[in-house]
Amino acid sequence: MAAYGGHLDVLIWLHDSGCPWDAQTCSKASANGHLNLLMWARKNGCPWDHGTCHDAAKNGHLDCLQFAHENGCAWMESTCQSAAEKGHLDCLKYAHQNGCPWDGSACTVAARNGHLECLKYAHENDCPWGIYACIGAARRGHLAVLKYAHEQGCPWNESVCSAAAEEGHLNCLKYAHENGCPWDGRTCSSAAKGGHLKELQYAHEHGCPWDDLTCLMALSKVNFECLKFAHENGCPLDPVLFVCSAERGDLKTLQWLFANGCPWDGVVAEVVRNVSEQYGHDEILEWCDGDDNDNEGSTLTADLQEID
């Protein structure tokens, strides 16, 4: 704690009093940019490891990173990764130019966090990248980063569209689709899962496939607008939706499903009843028994009586 807070006088007293220390002392000092404390600790024999460089780069303390490296402190790929993740271009450049290794994670975290300059530097200096750079940019809504990555040949796949859709980034979804990024049913189900109606509408209206998982995801997030849109535009309803509604005690949605033709038979009816009893949803049980006296309830009661 003394190193983390930059309290050199306290650290000196602790050390003189025989308090043990380890590599964490140097790491904590570098994490908060306490160069004088880091230098004193090393001068007095405190050990360090790659965590010192990692923490210095992560928090943008170039002077601590330089001191550590120039005095023999080890570093590894996590040093470049942490610098890129936080957008500390000066630390990233220093580490790379002085022989610190890197891997695809540097590009991935730079893209995911929207640090375009770090991504550019890494890519232009032959740092490898892969589909997760585009996925991360799309998921966080970093359109400029996504454009750069794609234009520079970074690979992408269906997960890019589904990531953009799930997080509600319509601009990224549009860009990806209009520039040839493939999509599949996960795009629609992800949009529904995130409760993003505009993204769901865009995907469907531009030919993206969907299946009953779209409705299930909409229901799982209690997003009635997405569920309604999907059904009204031909997305299939699965009987498991009844079970999900019963588990939550969501009578309104259960009634809507029944009224809108979600497949129902004696087996489904029995499951709904059992689930409702298990979770104590008396209102649904009453509806199952036709206590509401509407046509849906009467039809449902008849179905239930057939399996009694």
From TrEMBL:
From what superkingdom does this record's organism come? Eukaryota
Mind telling me which Pfam families this protein's record contains? Ank_4 (PF13637)
Gene3D superfamilies listed in its UniProt record:
Ankyrin repeat-containing domain
PANTHER family according to UniProt: ANKYRIN REPEAT-CONTAINING PROTEIN
User: Can you name this protein?
Assistant: Ankyrin containing protein (ISS)
